[in-house]
Design brief:
Elements lengths: L18 E2 L10 E2 L5 H5 L1 H12 L1 H6 L12 E4 L5 E4 L6 E2 L3 E6 L5 E6 L3 H41 L4
Antiparallel strand pairs: 1-2, 3-4, 4-5, 6-7
The structure holds zinc ion (ZN).
């Protein structure tokens, strides 16, 4: 009589469960009912599987293995300079998100560099910047207006001797 390799319980028709011989997350296809009991297959067994799947994630992704749930999930990696990349099934790394760097040159100007993944993304980033600049200009205008209003109120209150 086969026994559960985790808890040692004898496997019967009541407690048997189907388990991949080599976990599916790393490409295993064949299953057996003579490996784990139902309880262990639903509990700690899946924890071991998750650890193993995580350790082999890079290889399953690079080898483009087809799993029962489809393709392995994309890999997330970081370059030495801190940029985040996504690698989808054996493809070349792609930036996870556009990189926007702003370097202040002086009080009135900045150097802006944008690394985008597509022309459309670059255009969107430029539009976003344009909006930000317009908002900043409006804010400056408002601040000037508010300042002149304050001055005006101050001068008037002085004129009427109000404190
Ligand atoms: Zn068991």
């Amino acid at each position: 009589m086969p026994k559960c390799y985790l808890c040692g319980a004898e496997l019967t028709a009541e407690n048997e469960s189907e388990e991949h011989i080599i976990i599916n997350a790393i490409g295993g296809r064949y299953k057996s009912k003579k490996l784990l009991c139902k309880k262990c297959n639903n509990g700690s067994g899946s924890d071991y599987d998750a650890v193993l799947a995580k350790q082999y994630h890079f290889f399953t992704n690079m080898l483009e293995l087809s799993l029962e749930r489809g393709k392995p999930p994309a890999l997330k990696m970081e370059s030495e300079s801190g940029e985040s990349y996504t690698i989808k099934n054996g493809t070349t790394p792609e930036l996870s998100h556009p990189i926007v760097k702003t370097e202040k040159i002086d009080e009135h100007s900045s150097h802006i560099s944008i690394i985008a993944r597509s022309k459309e993304e670059l255009e969107q980033k430029l539009k976003d910047f344009q909006k930000k600049v317009e908002i900043r200009r409006l804010r400056q205008k408002y601040m000037q207006y508010a300042r002149s209003l304050r001055m005006n109120i101050y001068q008037k209150s002085n004129f009427y001797g109000i404190k």
